[in-house]
Amino acid sequence: MSEITFALNGEAISISTAPDTPLVDILREHLFATETKLACGIGRCGACAVLVDGRLMNACLVRAFQLADKKIVTARGLDAVPEAAMVREALAAESAFQCGYCAPGFTLALIALLRDHPDADGRQIRTALEGNICRCTGYGSIIRGALRAAEAWRQRHGVPLPKP
Amino acid sequence: MSAAAGAGSRLAAGSTALQADWVRGRARPSTLVDLTSLEGLRGIDQFEGGTRIGALTTLADIARGVPSLAPIIGEIAGPAVRNQGTIGGNIAWRAGCLVPALLVRDARLEIETPASVEETDLSAWLGRAEPSLIRAILLPTLPDRHRWTFRKIGLRAAFSPSVINVAGLIGFDGERIRMARLAAGGGVVAPQRLDESEAGLVGRTLAETDWQDVHRRIEAELEAPGDRVRSGRYRRRVAANALVHGLSGKLPSGPARIERRNPKPASPPDEIRLSREQLADRWFVRPDLQPKISGELAYMTDHREPGMLVARILRAGLPHARILSIDIAAAEALPGVAAVVTHRDIEGRNAFGIVVQDQPALCHDKVRYAGDAIAAVAALDAATAEHALALIEVEFELLPVVSDPLAALEAGAPPVHGRGNLQRELALDRGDVEAAFRTADHVVEDVYVTPRQMHGFMETEGGYAVPTAEGGIEVFVGGQHGRRDRLQLSRILAVPEEKIRVVTSPTGGAFGGKDELTVQPALALLAMKSGRKVRMHLSRADSVLAGIKRNPMRIRMKTAVDRSGRLLAQEVDLVADGGAYASLSPSVLETALEHACGPYVVPNIKTRGRLGSTNNGTCGAFRGFGANEMSFAVECQMDRLAAACGLDPIEIRRRNLRAPGSPGYFGQAVAPTERLSEMLDAAANSALWREPSGCAPDGSEVYGVGMAFNYQGNGLGTLPPDFGGGSLRLAGDGAIEALYGLDDIGQGLIPAVQSAVASSLGCGRSDVRVIFGDTDAAPDSGSTTASRGTHVVWQAANLAAPGFSGQLLACAGRVLRREPELLEIVEGGVADKGSNSLEPIIHFADLAVALEADELPAETVSFPFPKSDYVAGNARYILISGATLARIAVSRITGQVRVLDLHMHTAAGPMLDVASYLGQIEGAMVQGLGLTLLEDTLIAEGQTLTRNLDSYMLPSIQDAPARTAVFALEDLDPGDTLGPRGIGELGIGAVAPAIANAIADAIGAWPAITPIAPEAVLDMMDRRS
Q: What pTM value is reported for the model?
């Protein structure tokens, strides 16, 4: 067991756990932060996506020993990200999800993309979301929601449209 | 460093591969050495003649910093993994996708051994056995004049395990090839340079090169093993194809010329294309979406309370064995264990099943599949529960494994249950097929195979159970029919149904896979034994092992037509894998055979279907429920017969279509509004027929378009009891509550109910609060399966509306001192009928406050689901139709199929909620695409080989069609009172045959085995060219 200190959605967390404990277990089992979903546990579906120091990662592949002093943002932590509300609204407007279990992970992946590439086009959106699996929608609605989110993001930040 | 840490240690960089390794059973290291603090191993720097990449540089950083590697990095894993995984790890793992590309670039490594720091060739390093730490990768600049190619061949379009990766680089001196590097690797293929093939290239010009010979050399030289998904032959062949095409633009053989008969345009029906833009006034945001997106909505596997116990289930691990003893003493004695349950704790019937109760909740005498549950443990935490499972000792006596459904039916096959292995046999004989086959002009026959598809819901089975003070139990587990789950639990627990509450919603996907009981019995038994709250969430591996799958089917179909394309006879022999327990498999078989002729008239029919018990997991309900499997066969046969007769795909169907209003397949009455010819007209007019066919300009792909028809029943059919119901009531806070015992499995129950109630009462959608998925809160509505929910929602609202409106207006009249007849329900409340303002004169909330609790209006209804008059077998009354069109590209390099366009024309009556309707069709189409091209759960000798989503290929976003379009024809026949039809299964039904027919359009032959193997496609192309 070792003592690990990191920031979760802006709040300092200190827990005692085995160094190889996956972050997804720390979140769901120790901290009851169940907005981070668990679907495959081996990094192949993106349901447990989080931001680690601003970068998208799968919480099932990040281990306690890699967490020291890191800033972790989960889907709930996006409440503090100014653009998140409009991204969520755009996804909801296009009825992007059905059962919704994959939705927090997709939202984090999309926000990670748009923050780096506010000019992202449909092809880049697909590439950025290829690590997230959705079983309900067939992805069409997610792509439409993501395009709408990108458009809202561009309008907010005055970014020109992607080249055709 | 590793040496210092001791034997059994392992170096970790990004550590993305560790988890998958551990889950596969590889031993955890005693010490994990975290390399990430070594700063000297980071960064990308240029040096004279090349680039130095620190070994700890993440793949994502390389994609940004080394342009020549960026496209290759993009083929490795997914974005989140690339943010974590490092180039050093990718190389040290040896199976990494990048290695072949680095080999042809003559990459060198800077390594550290206990003795020294040195530089070495990557290829030399790969052959070394002694341990070393990779510090950096030295990547020489590409030659001035060069060609270079890289291709990853995976199992799906993105985020895929590697089948094989190849890289090739040639450098020129003038026109002549001065140097050549060819390499392969990835997955089971060891990284290797192809020296002899390289030598054959040097010294010639590109034009002089005999590429056929290069191809042969590569195939001969490459060492590539086969595995259960791809043969070594396939790997060698596609590697040679990819290298030769990548370097020369050529392939060994030319594409075959395929003639297509395009359908004649017809007058199109009055469809609408579904989109938010097109139907803005009918597009509503689902109330449950924002909380799902934000993560605020807790699924039942998310529920946490301090002090809750955590449960795990002990699985058999063996496919077929007699249980001699089960010893739980050590597990019970483990500190932190609160309860261990076995069959000895079952007070009621230790058997469950929706129709036939043949599956033990916890096995007692024998196990019949590897996922069978034997015991369950509840402990203070997951680790303790898992430890306790390991302490349970079960003695088995092995029994012979029944692994093939056909062999299972042979005399002398070991019985899975006490009886023989023939779980169900069905036959139908009409007319004289033999005579018809003798006189027919064309007869087409093949064996169509469909896979053991996994539902793949993102939220695996799980939830929690709470014991009640009265000796009852509350069970919160995702399901598809709470009342039936309650009945089944009552039988097992010997607790009256009134003392059991089952909450089944919301759940993270179901598709039929949560129709049968899953973890409810174990959770309930543990909660009752421990007297405490218990939660459980199956790991994906456990879910894959234990969960129900689609019944694999082999359908031999022989169909005859006369010269004009009129169907004369059809013979069908279907063998389905029934798995270890019945669940709904017999009904799936029956449904498949019910759809044996699709919507076509066939005078002579002989069908036979058999369901064989095996030790191959369990099977049962899955969206499509046998109908889609049968449609695959029927609709491919139609296209093959059309080709034989020289007809286009629409014309042959038109000549054989049943007449609206005529008796159904069994002679039964069927519901009006069939819309079969309208759907054919829509398909005939599809823009996809006008898209280019033939070969892509670079020769790498050939294009094809195909269509298929779907004709699918709604509801459970004549034989099972099938009742709908629901309630409307005014709540104390003024909400109009609509109560349904249905479930939200993602399909959009809430907006559908809001739509139906709002339109039947005249109130607004947002006035309606939907209560569902809770046996204590809502009346029984039947199951959320079989595309029946839509009709139940609509009919219950319709039937309850007059009574409820009457009561509500009477109450409003009393409160307002007006005549109820002069009032009407409007959005937000009750208005004066005479006024045009639609402004409520009393809001629902104010009305509710003005009433005593027992005066609040409430109306409950129950009704039979519409059924046919045929009772000699199971038959559907409501049948809906649709046409699916697929445009595909077949890779001439890999044999893989990309779906470019997927269109579906649907006729299912008025849409309750446009967004949900569109979502159901689109989602089902891609699930069908997965069945057709990607998905299968592999089982050999009763052992499930597929463990998780690294080997089970759910379609990724890159596998989804580039473009989809969904059209709806909403009108009903005059006098049709059945309203909106359910479309949960319509979308999946015709995808496989549409894709197969499109492949035939592209390459001239029909694949009959799904998921369609790229190797089979390459072979078919060979035979044609």
A: 0.97
